[in-house]
Write a structure and sequence with these properties.
Elements lengths: L3 H6 L7 E4 L3 E5 L7 E7 L14 H17 L7 E4 L15 E5 L8
Antiparallel strand pairs: 1-2, 2-3, 3-5, 4-5
The structure holds guanosine-5'-monophosphate and zinc ion (ZN).
Length: 112
């Protein structure tokens, strides 16, 4: 299977990694939409949010919690930030490996 985020997780492709443990990796987005734009994702391949099972609830909780910690480290906890999971074609998902966008460091526009 050819998945860019699996390749980054396995260190076959380089990225600016800001956090990793056995379960999760976080790295800077290659085309940042704001001064802070980090992707937080499971190392295991899950294509999209719709494919999750109830057993993955803890994993997703850990990803959101990690984004919270990274936001604090980036100094944007108090100013505010956006967390986004795009899901599927109409949801604007381009890379088919679940990832949470942590975006901030400037005033963001409204969604929709
Ligand atoms: P999506 O639209 O799927 O929610 O977001 C995919 C994101 O992954 C985009 O913001 C895009 O800039 C980022 N991205 C795509 N390929 C790479 C890559 O090879 N390295 C990094 N660091 N980010 C990538
Ligand atoms: Zn993958």
């Amino acid at each position: 299977m050819d998945c860019i985020f699996c390749s980054i997780s396995k260190k076959e492709v380089s990225a600016d990694v800001v956090f990793e443990n056995d379960e999760i990796i976080a790295f800077k987005d290659i085309a940042p939409q704001a001064p802070v734009h980090i992707l937080v994702l499971p190392k295991k391949h899950i294509a999209k949010i719709s494919d999750l099972s109830d057993d993955d609830a803890m994993l997703i909780g850990n990803i959101v919690n990690r984004a919270r910690i990274l936001a604090k480290k980036q100094g944007i906890s108090d100013s505010g930030f956006r967390l986004v999971f795009n899901c599927g074609d109409e949801g604007g998902q381009v890379v088919d490996h679940i990832h949470l966008h942590l975006i901030g460091g400037k005033k963001l526009g409204e969604i929709g």
